[in-house]
Design goal:
Elements (H helix, E strand, L loop, with lengths): L45 E5 L3 H15 L7 E5 L10 H6 L7 E4 L6 E4 L1 H12 L7 H31 L5 H23 L11 H14 L7 H4 L5 H11 L2 H8 L38
The structure holds glutathione.
C-alpha cells in the first residue's frame, strides 16, 4: 500500500470550507438553517420533501406500494429538495428535520400535524399507520425491524465510507477504499446469505426491510449506485442479484424510483409528484446532474 500522505492533524481542527471536495458547497460543521424559506404545501395529507437518492426512494416506493394496494388515504405530494443547492438548510425544511437531510415527511392525516424524519422512522410510521408491510406476528415483526435497523446502521459504511472514497473524494486513498470495500463486500455477503433461504429480506413477506435495503444495495448490484458493480464483483452474490431484480420488477418500485428524480434518462424522471396521473403527464426536460446523493 502506498503511503505518500503527509497530512498531520493540527492540535485543533479548523474548518477550511474549500477542502470538502465535491460537496464543499453544502457540507458544514454547523447545524441549522442558513436561510429563510417556507416549504410548499399541497393538498394531500402527506407532504414529502425529498430527492430520488437511495434514502429518498425508500419512501416514495412505500407510498406507491400503499397506493397500489388501493389505499387512497396514502395519497401524497412529493416536493423536490435540491440538496446540491442547499435546500435542506432552508428554515422550513430544518423545522421539519433539524438534521437537514432528505427524506422528511409532514403527516397531516391526524388531529395534529406530525413531523417524521429519518427514512427508517418514516417507513415504520407509515407501516404502522396503514397496517401493511410490517407483519403483526411478533417474531416476524422483530425480524423485519432487525433488518430495517440493519440498513440504518450499515448503509453509512456503504454510502459515507465506500461510496464517498471510491466515487466522490478528490483523491483516491487506497487505505480508505480498502477499508470500506472490505466492509461493503461483507455486507453484500450478509444479504446474499440471508436471501439464500428467504424470498424477501425478512422472510416470506415483502416488507419495509426490502424497501429500505433495495435502493442502496440493489442499486449497487444493478450498477446504478457508484458504478462499482464490477469493482465489487456484484455478480458473485447470486441470491442478492435475484432479489435485486425481483424487487426492481415491481411496478410500484419503478414508480417510486422516478419520484423527485431530475437526472438520468428523461423517461425515469418525475421531479414532483402530486397525483397518480403525473406519471403519465411528465413534461420536465431539465437535467440537474449535480443533485445527487451525498452518501450521508
Ligand atoms: N439516516 C438518514 C440519512 C439521510 C441522508 O443521508 N440523506 C442525504 C441524501 S441521501 C441528504 O439529505 N444529504 C444532504 C446533506 O448531507 O446535506 C435517513 O435514513 O433518512
Amino acid at each position: 500500500m502506498s503511503s505518500e500522505n503527509e497530512y498531520e492533524p493540527p492540535k485543533i481542527w479548523q474548518w477550511n470550507s474549500e477542502s470538502g471536495g465535491r460537496f464543499a458547497k453544502i457540507n458544514r460543521p454547523i447545524s441549522g438553517a442558513t436561510h429563510e424559506k417556507e416549504l410548499p404545501v399541497g393538498e394531500h395529507a402527506f407532504q414529502l420533501y425529498s430527492l430520488a437518492t437511495p434514502n429518498g426512494v425508500k419512501i416514495t416506493v412505500m407510498f406507491e406500494e400503499l397506493l397500489a394496494l388501493g389505499i387512497s388515504e396514502a395519497e401524497y405530494d412529493a416536493w423536490f429538495i435540491n440538496i446540491g443547492e442547499g435546500d435542506q438548510f432552508g428554515s422550513g425544511f430544518v423545522e421539519l428535520n433539524p438534521n437537514s437531510k432528505i427524506p422528511a415527511l409532514l403527516d397531516r392525516s391526524g388531529e395534529t400535524p406530525l413531523r417524521v424524519f429519518e427514512s427508517g422512522s418514516i417507513l415504520l410510521h407509515l407501516a404502522e399507520k396503514f397496517g401493511h408491510f410490517l407483519p403483526s406476528d411478533p417474531v416476524k415483526r422483530t425480524e423485519t425491524l432487525n433488518w430495517l435497523f440493519w440498513q440504518m446502521g450499515s448503509a453509512p459504511y456503504l454510502g459515507g465510507g465506500f461510496g464517498h472514497f471510491y466515487s466522490y473524494a478528490p483523491v483516491k486513498i487506497e487505505y480508505c477504499i480498502d477499508r470500506f470495500t472490505m466492509e461493503t463486500k461483507r455486507q453484500l455477503d450478509v444479504l446474499d446469505k440471508q436471501l439464500a433461504n428467504n424470498e424477501y429480506i425478512a422472510g416470506e413477506d415483502y416488507s419495509i426491510a426490502d424497501m429500505a435495503i433495495w435502493p442502496w444495495y440493489g442499486g449497487v448490484m444493478a450498477n446504478r449506485v457508484y458504478e462499482a458493480a464490477e469493482f465489487l464483483q456484484a455478480h458473485e452474490y447470486t441470491n442478492l442479484m435475484r432479489w435485486t431484480e425481483q424487487i426492481g420488477a415491481r411496478a410500484a418500485v419503478q414508480r417510486g424510483a422516478m419520484v423527485n428524480r431530475a437526472w438520468g434518462p428523461l423517461e425515469n424522471q418525475l421531479r414532483e409528484r402530486h397525483d397518480a396521473s403525473d406519471f403519465e403527464l411528465r413534461t420536465q426536460d431539465k437535467l440537474e446532474p449535480d443533485a445527487e446523493d451525498t452518501g450521508i
